[in-house]
Write a structure and sequence with these properties.
Strand content: 15-25%
Largest sheet: 5 strands, parallel
Shape: globular
Strand order of the largest sheet: 2-1-3-4-5
Length: 226
């Protein structure tokens, strides 16, 4: 399923004006879902799932998304299950972490570090999400509203200006390491700068110091974005 077809499916499942919560770490499906939500004209709500439940719950209660997209990393799913009473009417779609990485499943576990992979809960609101590679955003498309971030809202014009400024600072062949959540102004700016014929954006679901330093040593990184 491409980002475009996922957007069409979202338009059928999520009512107009409703919100879609991305409860995801920095993985490729985050990008595909964001583009699909914007393409469907629905409102994305972006959070950092590493934050403690008591910090995440007020945003979920306020936004009341109709759909939540998450991933089957045990620590992420466990936290969402704790927060589920705050969003009792939301449908939940779960991506497979094993399909997000370009190497065999048995090599996933160093990235999980004690978390493991989770099974779908025995709850009719949970179902698997099937996606395929994302398409680049259409710079001429106008979004239906702002992106909701943990720190507030960001408008399309602001994000376009920020990403254009960032791209102007670097060559096309650079490799950038995203050392902050995609659900941040820096993360979104780096993402859209890279998607619009910019440098390579290197992401990791783990943002701890040890993981980031290892990628910097081995990943031929030209610029780190915090």
């Amino acid at each position: 399923m491409t980002a475009g077809s996922l957007g069409g499916r979202l338009a059928q499942v999520v009512p107009a004006g409703a919100k879609v919560l991305l409860f995801l770490p920095n993985v490729p499906v985050w990008v595909r879902v964001l583009l699909a939500v914007l393409g469907a004209g629905r409102q994305p709500v972006l959070v950092d799932p590493r934050r403690p439940p008591e910090e995440l719950e007020p945003a979920l209660v306020e936004q009341q998304p109709a759909l939540i997209v998450t991933i089957d990393i045990g620590t992420v799913m466990d936290k969402l299950l704790q927060l589920q009473p705050a969003v009792p009417h939301a449908e939940i779609r779960v991506a497979r972490f094993a399909t997000e990485l370009p190497f065999p499943r048995n090599l996933l576990f160093p990235l999980l570090r004690g978390g493991g992979l989770a099974n779908l809960p025995n709850d009719p609101r949970f179902a698997r999400l099937e996606t395929a590679p994302a398409t680049s955003p259409d710079p001429d498309r106008t979004w239906s509203g702002p992106l909701v971030l943990p720190t507030g809202e960001i408008q399309q014009a602001e994000l376009v200006a920020d990403s254009s400024s960032l791209r102007a600072q670097a060559g096309l062949e650079e490799r950038w390491l995203l050392a902050t959540p995609l659900a941040s102004r820096t993360g979104l700016t780096a993402l859209f700068a890279a998607l619009q014929a910019g440098p390579t954006l290197v992401m990791t679901p783990r943002l701890d110091r040890q993981s980031l330093e290892k990628i910097e040593r081995l990943g031929r990184i030209d610029r780190r974005l915090d």
